[in-house]
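Forum > Structural Biology > Help requests

Title: Can anyone predict the 3D structure of Glycosyltransferase RgtA/B/C/D-like domain-containing protein?

Hi all, first post here. I have the sequence for Glycosyltransferase RgtA/B/C/D-like domain-containing protein but no way to get a structure on my laptop. I'd be grateful if someone could post the structure tokens.
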Amino acid sequence: MTTAAAAATAPPFSSPLARRSGPHAQEISAMSVTRPRSRLRSSAAAVKAQELWSHVPSALRLPLAVFLSCQACYLLWWMAFHPGLIDYDALAYTWQVTTDHWISNHSVLYNSLLWLSLNTTGGFGALTLLQTIAMSAVLGYTCASLRTLGVRGRWSAPAALACAAAPPLGVFTVYVGKDVPFTICAVLAFAVTVRLVGRRLRGSWNGRLRRSELLLLCVAFLGISLFRNNGFPVAVIAGLSLLLVLPGARRLIAVLVTVTTAVTLTLMLVVYSAVGVQKPPRTLVYNLHYADLAVTYAQAPGLFTQDDLRLMSRAAPLSDWRTTGATCFASDPLYRKLNRHVTDQLTEPLVQLWWRTLRKAPQKVMGARICRGHIAWAVFPGPQDQGGRTYNSLNWVNPTFYKWYPEMRTSPYRQASQPHPPSQALRDVGVFAYAASRVPQLEWLLWRGAIWCYATYVLVTRLTRARGCRALFALAGVTFGTQFTVFVATPSPCFRYMAAPMFIGVLCLSLIPALRGAARPVVPPPASRATPSTASDTSPKNVEYTQ
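Reply #1:
Sure, ran it for you. Structure tokens for Glycosyltransferase RgtA/B/C/D-like domain-containing protein below:
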């Protein structure tokens, strides 16, 4: 037999292991071959990923890593609750923009974004997805800004990831509501403040805002003012905190705050009505005044004359005034009882009655306001039987909604607002995590912003003392502005009103490791003889502090 014939008739090659392993030898041999191939593919992908990552500038690696990590978490929440969390207010926005009943009692800017999402995609998913992307980007930028304070990425990145992974804050980002973009802009204002104060802390402040800082600060202040009707005081307080600590840029910051506030008030008072956006009913505008009257009447009915009682009874039965007044934590129960058409006509005499009541018993009216602002200053919730618990139901629609908005019963967008998750198993996990986070014993920590406000104040104060730089107090400007405005005027103890201080408070936890470092003054180097190339350079005169 020739060599070629022997080769043609010889059995195929098999390893010694295959020859000893019986009938499954070929299968085992194939597995031993495919495993190295899969490992080679995975190692090749890892090498390619490392190569791509090496091309990313070092300054962008931390914010990019935070953005991708947070976005991955938000995508899971978004798919679990797709198209988003819907409540009473979300359907009210939908009714306004789909039935041509635009009213300025809600954010017209957010309603415009909602209208755009509904008309381009037919649902809410595009809007909520955009919210997650914006929040992830802001969290990444915040971590990059915290580096100017000496906060390493190993400290700030986990704090940002906690904002995306924790059910209260993670689920909140996919909620269809104006408070989400307001919170995004508030965190952005905090991040820009951190960057500006960090420049002064490190001795690199030259009295000028960079273009990117000025642009982001303008976007943040406009968003804070336009996404929440009473949000412009937050921008003013945050701007004032910067005004006091940034010499050289005070005029520019004052102009920026003035212009953004003027634009907001002009839109609300002039432009909206000129383009056909209706003004809110007068009963809604003075809702808090009527709630003050109800609380005072329930506690001290002898302060009201017979004429006063007859006036109040025309708006609602006195029994409704008395029963709703016993609950001082919210004004919404009384608003639902009022005959709105009649009350709108009685606005002037009812407001005059409020002023007379304020003069007679200021402690009652002020007590009602402080009680209603409970969500802003109190760490623990109030009594459940008096409505003092935190309102955190972002995915529940009160059945009375369809009584006030009957068009939504047959609206196609009612079906579009129903859950459509791509995976039912993923939704079950999301619903379980969201429900588990609502344990009453942890409500003060997970659902109320007051504890995070105080944590921010403590951490900022400690950092200010450790670094010896009072400019660091500006870091608390956005938190204080939000807490103050919610305390002054809020209709109910809703969790979403204080979400911004919660995000900022969690991010400020990354300051704790930075407190261990002692402050070291940065002294300018001795001035050398001026040369033609350095004659225009000047050394800083003030001593700054850094870690």
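The chain has 29 helices and two strands. Residues 314 and 365 are 22 Å apart (CA to CA).
Shout if anything looks off.
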